[in-house]
Design a protein that fits this description.
Layout (H helix, E strand, L loop, with lengths): L5 E6 L4 H13 L3 E5 L10 H11 L3 E4 L6 H6 L1 H18 L4 E7 L21 H13 L6 E5 L2 E2 L9 H10 L4 E4 L3 E2 L2 E2 H13 L4 E5 L5 E2 H9 L9 E4 L18 H6 L7 H7 L6
Parallel strand pairs: 1-2, 1-3, 3-4, 4-5, 5-10, 6-9, 7-12
Antiparallel strand pairs: 8-11
Helix pairs in contact: 1-7, 4-5
Length: 286
């Protein structure tokens, strides 16, 4: 049996995607030994500690999932969002100058005016969250060996129970809150388990540059909600259709659907659409 002799650092291991990347490693990347990094171990903003641990562990890859990913949180505290989403990525990418580095970005680097965005389309984020992710992308991509993965809404089960779109929706409905879901805002949702599978495959193939990793089908938030509530017949509160243009918050990107053909050409199994995946996994806890 081959001895595990390569170490992977996974940051944000308590988050939705980070947790799935850690949990799927034995299946998709058995040659890697994983260190799942969480705030309980050390603060990634304590760069002195991070550098000491890096020199001690000498990982061969960093998969950087840690971030402020809640749009409203980033909007309320831009300085904090920049510190975590940009400066942390800058430092880790610098440490990883001679090894593989995988950075998670977002479809929200686009303004949503056209949809079906390819990797080379010009970004134009409308909110702080997308701005910080774009700034970090530009830093990471200065190293031609590093990989940026732009993804869309991910669904799944997180350790905290509130990180996935599906978890947030279910919690609201459990609390008796009728939810208005937009019929005019489109994303390409993907189960986090599939995102993790793709990350490991791209990393194992030493891919670099930008890859879009998202569901194969564009769905409105309303359509996503209709697929998900079929799993929860016990909930009495209902979802209702609404319009993003009536939303009182900051401007929203209405169609950030991602073209995933670049990734599809490389992957051993295709990226699924959400409805297809849910139908094939009826017992998956959601």
């Amino acid at each position: 049996m081959e001895r595990k002799n390569k170490l992977a650092w996974i940051t944000g291991a308590n988050g939705l995607i980070g947790n799935y990347v850690v949990q799927t490693a034995p299946k998709f990347a058995p040659q890697w030994q994983v260190r799942a990094l969480t705030r309980e171990q050390f603060d990634l903003l304590n760069f002195e500690t991070v550098e000491r641990e890096f020199k001690k562990d000498r990982p061969q890859i960093i998969i950087h999932c840690a971030a402020i990913s809640v749009i409203s949180e980033a909007q309320k505290n831009p300085a904090r969002a920049k510190q975590i989403n940009v400066e942390m990525a800058r430092f880790l990418a610098g440490l990883a100058a001679e090894i593989q580095f995988v950075f998670f970005s977002t479809d929200l680097v686009f303004d949503g005016r056209k949809g079906n965005y390819a990797e080379m389309d010009a970004p134009n984020p409308l909110q702080i969250y997308g701005e910080t992710k774009l700034a970090a992308e530009q830093i990471v991509l200065k190293n031609p060996q590093h990989l940026v993965i732009r993804t869309s809404l991910n669904v799944g089960v997180s350790r905290a129970g509130n990180r996935g779109f599906n978890e947030q929706l279910r919690l609201s409905l459990q609390n008796g809150e009728p939810m208005k879901l937009f019929t005019d805002e489109f994303r390409c949702p993907l189960p986090a388990a599939e995102t993790a599978r793709v990350v490991w495959e791209l990393a194992n193939k030493k891919c670099a540059g930008i890859f879009h990793v998202a569901g194969a089908e564009k769905l409105s938030r309303w359509q996503m909600g209709q697929l998900l509530v079929q799993r929860w017949p016990d909930l009495k509160s209902k979802i209702e259709p609404g319009l993003a243009r009536d939303f009182p918050g900051p401007a929203r990107a209405l169609d950030t659907s991602l073209n995933v053909s670049k990734a599809q050409k490389i992957l051993s199994a295709p990226l699924p659409d959400l409805g297809q995946w849910l139908a094939l996994h009826p017992n998956e806890p959601f």
